């Protein structure tokens, strides 16, 4: 099976072999594996690619090394070798079959630099480096995890991973891939996974202590769904350290705030620019959602190596008109308030809310910010050194904005999102003012 993309100079072709399964190298636990309520709401597939190039090593053994180390890593992370099913209570659980993920070897007819130059114009080309099971009708039929190793004609290779978010959040994904790399290099695991997710079970009886506005359904009085009938365009906007410094300075003007983080300032800027570019009605309620890592905020803290979703979605609400007529510092204050909201009782309340309602966060009038910039995704090392490029493939949804590390220092960021064409032009103008 192959896929072809052209950039005018040559036709990129990636030939995939037939997938095979990679079961754990030893017998692992069978039966059902519990997924907590924080896992239930985010059963979407996350796709990432990790590119490697080592002049000394080439890529001849890449697929063999990645495959063999994976079968050893799955002994420790055995739920990833199973498949999703539905429990009698109607929730997602893992059937630990031990069958292992589909694994695909592929070859590209170009160098890695040629691929990246095409990707700078058309980021969606990177999806050819991740194996996708065609014909899966729903999340139950989709494997929880797939791996593709693609060799380039320059000696580089890519490890493309698709993993269901209900299995891992960003922190767990990084720890798993890092452990897999340690095994590939013949090292002991620096962090052993803690697999018991029942420590995040709902309370009995459940107790809802907060409004849990992340689930609030907002009426689209701005008719934005009409805008989304236009062609979607995807762009990455670079923010170097100098530009980020200017943005934070703007946020602190007027001395309303004593301090703010890069994340808070950038989130505030993007939320405002997006409301303006989608031409939201002044009375349009708009919601900001973003994930906060709750591992250290639970009481007691989650154990080291907790394997699963230790994140909770926090939120803040505002009318679009109020947001746009107030200074940037006001929006940053709203973001800071959402960060402060996350305590042990808030997270337990969110877990219990799902137990009682089975609600999904509503995305009308909503912006969901995902910060990959804080994750050490550049660190998985299979023996070829650190990655020369790491990143997600595609944007998970039209309401999602990704903050990605950019450049060698990893302190510069890219803001990556998709918008209707007319809205993107306004968004770009707003972002360029900084």
From TrEMBL:
Family statement drawn from the similarity comment of this UniProt entry: Belongs to the plant acyltransferase family.
Keywords from the named record: Transferase
One of the Pfam families matching this protein, by short name: Transferase
Coiled coil start-end: none
Organism: Spinacia oleracea (Spinach)
InterPro entries for this protein: CAT-like_dom_sf, Plant_Fungal_Acyltransferase
Source organism superkingdom: Eukaryota
Keyword Manganese: no
An MF annotation (GO) of this entry: transferase activity
Protein name: Omega-hydroxypalmitate O-feruloyl transferase
This protein's record includes keyword Transferase: yes
